Amino acid sequence: MIASLPILLAILLSPNTANAASCTAIGDCLNDGTSAYFDTSGITYNSATGKFSGNLVSNLCPNYVHSNYSYSGTTWTSYGKAKPTCVTKNVAQYASAAPTAAPLREAIGYTVAGVLIFGPMDNGFLVGQACTSTTTGTCDSGTDVDACFIQMAQQCGSTFLPYMGTDLCGGHASPYHNHKDFVCLYDRNSTGHSPLIGFALDGRGIYGFKESSYSYPTDLDWCGGHYGNVPATTINGVTYPAASNVYHYHTQPQAPFTVGCYGPITSYAACAALYPTCGTGTSTLTGVDSSGSSCSYSYDTDCPCFGAGLTFNKNQMCAVTTVVPAAVTYTAWGTSTTTSSALSTGAIVGIVIGSIVGLAAIVGIALFVRSRMIKKTQGSVAVASSELEAK
Questions:
Q1: 29-53 residue pLDDT tens
Q2: What H or E segment, with its residue span, contains residue 118?
């Protein structure tokens, strides 16, 4: 019992295992993850079709340690300013229409912990938002988040504000939402097929990077999905069974990152036909070619059609290289905790406090036993003395 106290306290204090008692929209989303609430008990899975159905309830707060800045006017306010909002969402909202376009500026799905997932495109940035410079640092709306942040980092140089981008968990802003791999929800180094980490709003599952222990999927279509086997996954005590040859999505290190459209879609033409914005608007982005020289390239804005072999070809940086010099490469920022492979700050604090409490308990019991032994010894001596006096 005493030995289990540190573990018990670690669990109680760990943001990664925390789920608030009820869905509340009061206060702020705490960046330690303890204010999160999500309920997936209303979601069912048909392993024959590979489709989820039912409702997810969430207050949209991340259940892990994350970095969060919110922007209002000209002021950045740090940590914990995303506001909880209680929602009940149908995870198969677009199932009957698929294949179809996914929203460009709204949620395309939710993580298994109830956090918003947005598509690859960003809303864009004006001069003065991305860096302290008042003359540069812009990105047009409809550019994927990596291309956008890389350009701003190049334009701003040392004055670039890194928290303009996504944090190490793949999310940002208020309401907090993910654009990229939800690395704080699973262990990328785990063996086998990556687990279920999200629900796309066509009822299909979103899984992590890996297809198997040592490989990544090579046949993802223009929406970011493919047919294949998926493992069983347990969420909040509910196990969704394994399934064979079902359509599902994977997170990717490049655009569309999660879901570009609701598939299956097997050609660029079929994908582009879903989006009237494809081919109708371009943005001239700046870049750096393989020799380190400045250059520019045309980006097809609000066209989230990225095939496995065309991810950086359609919008290739300067038509020369996709590699950006390390000095100006955008990198994710902040502090994150992977739920499967590392202890959160709360867990560490819990272990420390638990260890102190456990040690105190051990010392207390030892002192108690010692006092009882002393009293017993004293009692024995007193009895012996009485017997001697009687004799």
A1: 877 788 889 999 999 999 999 999 9
A2: strand 116-118
